Amino acid sequence: MIKIAQEPLFRLFKLRIKSDSKDSFTEVGRNNLLTSIKNEPGTMAMYTGHIDDNGTDNRVLELYKDQANYQIHADSPQFADFKRVASSAVVEQSQIPMTPLLLVEQGPELCSISPKDMIVRLIETEVDSDKMADYKSLMKSEIRQAIVEDKGLLVTYLGKDNNQNQKLILFEVYNTEANYQKHLQSNHFQKFQQDSKSMITKQENIKIHADAMVNQGQMLYER
After folding, report:
1. What is the CATH number of the domain that holds 10?
2. CA distances (Å), 188 to each of 134, 139, 145, 153, 214, in order?
3. Residue 5 CB neighbours (<10 A)
4. Are 216 and 38 in contact (CB under 8 A)?
5. Average model confidence (pLDDT) for the chain?
6. What's the structural domain count of the chain?
7. Does an H or E element contain 60, and which?
8. How confident is the model at residue 114 (pLDDT cuts 50, 70, 90)?
9. Exposed, middle or buried: residue 67 (CB in 10 Å: 0-12, 13-18, 19+)?
10. Do 46 and 37 touch, CB atoms closer than 8 A?
11. In a 10 Å sphere around its CB, with 0-12 CB exposed, 13-18 middle and 19+ buried, how is residue 26 labelled?
């Protein structure tokens, strides 16, 4: 893995779209991701998917080297195409800027459309304010152990929600359901669950049905 020193620009978008715009929105989104990861070295990773059966409740996770490289992407023709479609397709949106705490990509570069076997999870956790430092330490330790022990863990990102100081967001990609289940049953994860249970005030574990996932691969960042 390549360790990076500069803090990346890290954001999560929640987009609700019109049901009759799903196909056009998905298609232009995929083109945006595939073209950007190929042409923009400062675009580090982009993931799009939906959490509902109809494909109208969407999530987009983005990682850029810095603000300047995001602007290169924002000025690109493929993003202009995406904005044009999104302007009529999106009926509700929110942006969550995040402070990256630990970002890991273990595999080679990822360039996948509608991956059928991969398991993508977004875990939003609210933590007791007095226990945040301890929880972050436990979470980082669990991630480091998972990197070593869990086969099939391709991507794991941990970030702090800048809009809510007590919320952490974990994004994970496993190559198969079987390997994800092995992770859940592993001794290290079970111990983490037990040790951290009293620190959590609220948690939501969201399954994302991926539409497109791209990254540069082999990256490590820790704050």
Report:
1. 3.30.70.100
2. 17, 11, 7, 14, 29
3. 6
4. no
5. 96
6. 1
7. strand 57-64
8. confident
9. exposed
10. yes
11. buried
Which percentage of the chain shows pLDDT scores above 90? Answer: 94
- What is the structure's pLDDT at 113? 83
Give the structural domain span for 173: 2-222
Reported as a single tens digit per residue, the pLDDT across 142-193 is 999 999 999 899 999 999 999 999 999 999 999 999 999 999 999 999 999 9
The DSSP symbol for 7 reads P
Rg of the chain on CA atoms, in Å? 17
CA end-to-end span of the chain, whole Å?
16
- The CA distance from 116 to 204, in Å, is 23
Model confidence, pTM: 0.95
- H helices of the chain, in order, are 22-39, 67-74, 77-89, 132-149, 177-185, 187-196
Residues 172, 178, 183: CA angle, nearest 5 degrees = 50
Strands 2-3 and 219-222: parallel
Q: 40-64 as b/e, with b when 16 or more CB fall inside 10 Å?
A: bebbbbbbbbbbeeebbbbbbbbbb
pLDDT in tens, 14-45: 999 999 999 999 999 999 999 999 999 999 99
Strand blocks (E) in 106-134:
110-113, 119-127
Cβ atoms of 179 and 152 closer than 8 Å: yes
